Amino acid sequence: MIRNCYLLALTGVVLVAFLLQTFLISNSPIDYPQVLEFPPSALSHADVPWNNDLQRVIKLGQGCLKQPEDIAVDKEGVVCTATRDGWIKKIHTNGTCEDWKFIGGGSLLGITLSITNEGDVLVCDAEKGLLKVNEKGVTVLAAEVNGSKISFADDVIEATDGNIYFSDASTKFGFHNWYLDTLEARPNGRILKYDPSTTKTTILIDGLYFPNGVALSKDQQFLVFSETWKFRCLKYWLKGANKGKLEVFIDNLPGGPDNINLAPDGSFWIALLPLTPKGLEFVHKWPMLKYVIAQFPRLRDFFRDGKRSMVVNVEADGKKIIRKFDDEGAKVMPFITSPVEFDDHLYLGSLGTNFVGKLRLNN
Ligand SMILES: [Ca+2]
Ligand SMILES: [Ca+2]
């Protein structure tokens, strides 16, 4: 009798374990999630004093710009941005908003102005790849690499020699499912290079944890890019004795780095994402929990809703953070994704606003 009860209980446990396994793992869109470690600076940041400087921004193009994720400013001070409704728009110095070129879709991200062909705008369409836009129209420069589709083109920069460097943040999850990549926290991304002389695209660096913003150093000796899930930026030498070498540029950032932009003095501005609400960072240590969260879009939204906005200015050699501007509670500038310095002002792109923020810097 006791033996039968024991067998029955054991069968029950095995059955429950099997059902749990089926429910938790087999149905989940993520595979073998890794632990996403929040560095002490990201955890302790919640307790340090906020300056709320980002709440002082002037709003440019308000109502005209739907989620301007990245921005570029030309030498005349005209702001160029790609918006969620598929437009490349320009904000002129008199404040007017111009619908410049229509691309379509809902996945335009990183943008940069060509320096080798004036008038060309290079833009990442997460779904279509790397695009060139000018008065003549839209050209797809790169939609695949080595036969594999570029599925999450994120940010782009052009070097003076014409080579174009851009990120493919995840080969597994697209822009609209980016938070699944956060939960999986695996090295699904890569940095690509487009060579205009051959029109070929090659993989420069593979196996990266959500490579996001890309920038070049002032002397163009190295490429620096964000690795968002690692709370760090890496640096890849393009020239000199270290050519081909990959190093840490800055780590232990107090948020997941998004777009990074070179400042006129050679330092860099980086937008930082909180990735998850304060106090819930532990979730990213539990793979089983991540399997469950990944299955329910509403749960995913809850865990990605970090209401803190921050940008940092980092020294040219990445040794330390010089300045930090933030917005506790993200009251004015939610979901900041891109800071660009021009003429003693910081221009701020965001996935959570309908304007570009402009903040006066006291240099
Ligand atoms: Ca950019
Ligand atoms: Ca980005």
TrEMBL record:
Domain of life: Eukaryota
GO MF, one annotated term: hydrolase activity
SUPFAM superfamilies on file: Calcium-dependent phosphotriesterase
The entry's keywords: Glycoprotein, Vacuole
Keyword Repressor: no
Pfam families: SSL_N, Str_synth
Compartments in which it is found: Vacuole
One Gene Ontology term, aspect cellular component: vacuole
InterPro entries for the chain: 6-blade_b-propeller_TolB-like, Strictosidine_synth_cons-reg
Strictosidine synthase conserved region domain: residues covered: 157-240
Major location (coarse): other
Family of the protein in this entry: Belongs to the strictosidine synthase family.
Protein name: Strictosidine synthase conserved region domain-containing protein
Lineage: Eukaryota, Viridiplantae, Streptophyta, Embryophyta, Tracheophyta
